[in-house]
Amino acid sequence: MEKKLSIRKHVTEVLGRLTEEQYIEESKQIAQHLFDSPYWNGAQVIALTIPRDQEVDTYEIIKKGWKENKKIAVPRADFKTKKMTFYELTSFDQLEQSAFRMKEPKETLCRIISKGEMELVIVPGVAFDKRGYRLGYGGGFYDRFLPHIKAPTIALAFSCQLVKEVPVDIHDWKIDHIISPTGFYR
Ligand SMILES: Nc1ncnc2c1ncn2[C@@H]1O[C@H](COP(=O)(O)OP(=O)(O)OP(=O)(O)O)[C@@H](O)[C@H]1O
Ligand SMILES: [Mg+2]
């Protein structure tokens, strides 16, 4: 637990030092590797999150998905049940600012997308390792969600988010693939 906290803190600090040019350029490189992959091309329904702070930019990924007539599913987190519900986003106007600097879809404006409909899940996180273990923000939301998902899972990571070993607890769930600016890391 201590170890998770200190890696979260360290990686967040290093991420905070990315320049705007680096952020834009490396996000573009990551997105291009995603667009070139069979996971993107084979999926009609894609779940992902809206970036907060220095997370890899997904706005451009969402726009590309819309252009290709894909359905984009974005979660709302319920902090009481620790569960996420995904909604189909068809416009950025459907987003509202919510807790923890997150942007989430307004439930009155969007239809629910069920777990079974998802064909690719792009998973957020702070740090990742070669085995596919991930360190999130400490809520356990994705660790509860991922065991129910049959679709491929992919994380998008700047180089400083790739660490030697993420500390693993019994409930931690692995992701299938990790894309960094230089390509598929896993
Ligand atoms: N499947 C689960 N069932 C019950 N509790 C869980 C489950 N997964 C995680 N938790 C609880 O959630 C808390 C946070 O877990 P952890 O520190 O791994 O979060 P995280 O992986 O950073 O978060 P997230 O998955 O939201 O990105 C832990 O206290 C853990 O016990
Ligand atoms: Mg975890």
CATH architecture group name: 3-Layer(aba) Sandwich
Determine the number of helices (DSSP H or I, runs of at least 4 residues). 5
Largest sheet, spatial ordering of strands: 6-3-2-1-7-10-11-12
Average pLDDT metric: 97
Low-pLDDT stretches are none
Distinct bound molecules:
adenosine-5'-triphosphate, magnesium ion
Give an overview in words:
This protein has 186 residues and is an alpha/beta fold. It is 26% helix and 24% strand. The protein has helices spanning 2-16, 20-35, 38-41, 59-67, 141-145; strands at residues 45-47, 71-78, 83-89, 95-97, 103-105, 112-113, 120-123, 127-128, 134-135, 153-156, 177-180, 183-184. The relative contact order is 0.18. The chain binds adenosine-5'-triphosphate and magnesium ion. The site of adenosine-5'-triphosphate has 15 residues, from helix 5. Magnesium ion binds next to loops.
Fold blueprint:
Elements: H1 2-16, H2 20-35, H3 38-41, E1 45-47, H4 59-67, E2 71-78, E3 83-89, E4 95-97, E5 103-105, E6 112-113, E7 120-123, E8 127-128, E9 134-135, H5 141-145, E10 153-156, E11 177-180, E12 183-184
Parallel strand pairs: 1-2, 1-7, 7-10, 10-11
Antiparallel strand pairs: 2-3, 3-6, 4-5, 8-9, 11-12
The site of magnesium ion (MG) has 3 residues, from loops.
